[in-house]
């Protein structure tokens, strides 16, 4: 018998504050107000800025694995993500289309053949369309396509309390198959059908309007500022996120700003926002510090 070789994966963690720039460590430049009792120069580390203290929370700089981790194995290619924009026919408001991209990762840089199928709920929109893809130098490839939605009665999505107050979501599924392999890769995203616009038109004596409309319906945006649900992110559960988002819905909120001093939240939070009719104003994670 062939002897099995053993492999070890070693992960080493450094104390976050040790990664600060030594040239800045002797200076108060880049430090927050002394009343915060925080740590200086967190802007030199790409970690949750508020974990080094902010006006609403203590300084708890963390380290370690706080999201799921694993090892993947595949021979051909896998779907990493699906991005989609829903668009409406200007001449026929009931006719929708998907402006969609399927983001793929290949195990090699050689071109390969694949067949793509796309489903909306159980309705097949594309059946095994053939593509030959040439990956980029990082192994990534992308399929972009515009798909008219036919044969499905679409209910438009609206924010909480706006117009019909419908938050109907549909399962959009992309599937990759390969003519020379039994391997299959799939990804599913729940989506709502909507158009979102920021309306800026001139007003007298000077200036511009600034308001949102969804599916052509103007609405009053009302909501709150989302900060990290816990300073220790590993304690945040799906149940707790649902409780918070449900409370926002029950308080008649329809928009929420994800503050740029925390983290890029989990996909699950944004799925809940879709479910409860809460639009997201997303900050980049560069707020409230000098980057």
UniProtKB/TrEMBL annotation:
UniProt-listed InterPro entries: Beta-gal/glucu_dom_sf (IPR036156), Beta-mannosidase-like_N2 (IPR054593), Beta-mannosidase_GH2 (IPR050887), Galactose-bd-like_sf (IPR008979), GH (IPR017853), Ig-like_fold (IPR013783), Ig-like_GH2 (IPR006102)
EC number(s) reported in the record: 3.2.1.25
Keyword set, alphabetical order: Glycosidase, Hydrolase
Enzyme class label: hydrolase
Coiled coil region boundaries: none
Catalytic activity of the protein: Hydrolysis of terminal, non-reducing beta-D-mannose residues in beta-D-mannosides
Any Pfam family hit: Glyco_hydro_2
Ranges for domain Glycoside hydrolase family 2 immunoglobulin-like beta-sandwich: 79-194
GO biological process, one term: carbohydrate metabolic process
Record-annotated Beta-mannosidase-like galactose-binding domain positions: 5-67
Gene Ontology molecular function terms on file: beta-mannosidase activity
PANTHER family reported for this sequence: BETA-MANNOSIDASE
Protein name: beta-mannosidase
């Amino acid at each position: 018998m062939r002897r099995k070789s053993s492999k070890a994966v070693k992960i080493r963690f450094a104390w976050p504050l040790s990664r600060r720039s030594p040239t800045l460590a002797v200076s108060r430049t880049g430090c927050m107000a002394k009343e915060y009792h925080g740590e200086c120069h967190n802007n030199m580390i790409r970690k949750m800025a508020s974990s080094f203290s902010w006006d609403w929370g203590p300084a708890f700089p963390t380290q370690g694995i706080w999201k799921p981790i694993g090892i993947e194995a595949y021979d051909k290619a896998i779907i990493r993500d699906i991005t989609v924009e829903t668009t409406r026919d200007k001449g026929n408001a009931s006719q929708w289309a998907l402006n969609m991209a399927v983001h793929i990762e290949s195990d090699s840089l050689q071109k390969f053949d694949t067949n793509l199928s796309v489903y909306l709920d159980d309705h097949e929109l594309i059946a095994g369309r053939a593509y030959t893809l040439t990956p980029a130098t990082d192994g990534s490839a992308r399929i972009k396509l515009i798909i008219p939605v036919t044969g499905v009665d679409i209910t438009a999505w609206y924010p909480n309390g706006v117009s019909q107050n419908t938050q109907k979501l549909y399962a959009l599924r992309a599937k990759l198959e390969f003519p020379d392999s039994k391997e299959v890769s799939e990804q599913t995203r729940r989506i709502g059908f909507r158009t979102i616009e920021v309306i800026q038109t001139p007003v007298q004596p000077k200036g511009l309007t600034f308001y949102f409309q969804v599916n052509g319906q103007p609405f009053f945006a009302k909501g709150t500022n989302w900060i990290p649900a816990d300073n220790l992110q590993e304690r945040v559960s799906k149940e707790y996120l649902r409780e918070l988002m449900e409370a926002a819905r029950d308080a008649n909120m329809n928009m929420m700003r994800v503050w740029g001093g925390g983290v890029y939240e989990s996909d699950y939070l944004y799925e809940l926002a879709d479910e409860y009719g809460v639009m997201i104003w997303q900050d980049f994670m560069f707020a409230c510090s000098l980057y």
